[in-house]
Amino acid sequence: MGAGISGLVCAYALRKAGIDAQIVEASDRPGGVIRSERRDEYLLELGPQSFAGTRSLRQLCRELGIENELLEAPGEAPRFVLIGGALREVPLSPSAFFASSLFSVGTKWRILRDVFGVSHPPKQDESIAAFVRRKFSAELLEKLAGPFVSGIYAGDPEQLSLRGAFPQLHEAEKSAGSVVREMIWSAKTRDAPRERPSLLTFKEGNETLTRALAANLGDALRCSAEVIAIQRRTKGSVEGYEVCLSAAGRDETLEVDHLIVATPTNAAAELLRQVGAGFESALQGITYAPVAVISLGYRKTAVGNALDGFGFLVPRSAGLEILGSVWNSSLFPNRAPDGHALLTSFVGGTTNPQAVTRSKEELSALVHREIAPLLDIKEVPVFSSVNVYQRAIPQYTLGHTDRLAALSALRTKYPGLWLTGNYLRGPAIGACVEQALAVVDLMLPTLRA
Question: Where are the beta strands (DSSP E) in 236-287?
């Protein structure tokens, strides 16, 4: 139920294993927020702009026959952060960090102290902001960690849980007393070959992946089929579910042995409250950040900045409304017409939710007004695209791991019921793929029994 990336991967993996899996989607297209469009010779990503090349994701692309469509961003492309009204390059290696004037001696000393010292995380859940201040410095939080968190979650580091959003950092301190030392040791002792860090998309956009999955599923995928009710059913000793659909103007009922709920939490809560008590409260505790995605096209001659890099992030202390900007046409070919540049910026998030209530024209003007002086842009954009998502990215706020534990315990009381989605193991495309495959791995022994 739900044909975003998580649901599509579950259905694909089950059918690959010989299981009769069907997938239904309420909207008229699969893919969820992964959406690519070519408009006026611009190739737009209306949701995620790119994705990390994980091992599972690359393997999936090979199986689907789309690996040769992958494009990799330049590995050396610098990232920038807005500090003191100017774009400063973010140091991405240890040597660059300690040589950079971006951070004070005090912050650098706290990093070194972590390498050679020992600390222990608090017993209670800790926010990302509290962790960074405790382990390192308020400066690192403001200039790097805060903008980085905003770029991934569009969230507030004061509210996001370290254990929920970045569990590997919590576990590193818990097991070794040092985040940096444990990460170095883990890299050296890893048995499997390490996946080379890379930022990817496809020649015709991210939606190439979800289109390929949908094509593989064929008639097993039904769009414009809304689930309106779910009931448990028992036939002898076999438990299952009756799923009532509304499609093509009429209702129908499917009898299923297993049900995978791959919808956002609000839709899941509404439907699963019909299955059992507790689901609604557990799922509604997971909130989402609203985000507006604004893509602007400019004539290159009107942009004074060379746009040599990935883009930039904006600390909240800078006083701007944009969260950051990606320089699409600098990262991948054929993103803009010849002689033009495509820049995609983001507005809103949990620290500024009212921003997305503005009109598309106001949002476009706002982004142009804020990025023009930073990038030395001398003319108005010649192209604009604005897409608003009221529920864009799930927030792994304080208590998130407890909520997931309660949700997992509740789910096990209902045989044949499974959950997948970007609120479980991370919002990134690769994390969703891995979590969906993990669900299928758990299901298969039962299905084959």
Answer: 238-247, 250-256, 259-261
- Domain covering 288-394 assigned CATH 3.30.70.260 in the classification: no
State which fold the 92-189 domain adopts.
Answer: protoporphyrinogen ix oxidase, domain 3 (1.10.3110)
| CB contact set of 145 (below 8 Å; sequence gap of 6+) | 128, 129, 132, 136, 157
Q: What dotted CATH number matches 5-74+200-286+396-447?
A: 3.50.50.60
CB 89 within 8 A of CB 77: no
Q: pLDDT tens digits, the chain, 449 residues: what are they? A: 999 999 999 999 999 999 999 999 999 999 999 999 999 999 999 999 999 999 999 999 999 999 999 999 998 899 999 999 999 999 988 889 999 999 999 999 999 999 888 999 999 999 999 999 999 999 999 999 999 999 999 999 999 999 999 999 999 999 889 988 887 776 666 555 555 568 999 999 999 999 999 999 999 999 999 999 999 988 766 789 999 999 988 999 999 999 999 999 999 999 999 898 899 999 999 999 999 999 999 999 999 999 999 999 999 999 999 999 999 999 999 999 999 999 999 999 999 999 999 999 999 999 999 999 999 999 999 999 999 999 999 999 999 999 999 999 999 999 999 999 999 999 999 999 999 999 999 999 988 76
Alpha-carbon distances of 298 from 191, 321, 336, 346, 374, rounded to whole Å: 47, 21, 9, 17, 14
Domain segments of the chain as ranges: 5-74+200-286+396-447, 92-189, 288-394
Is 0.85 topped by the overall pTM? yes
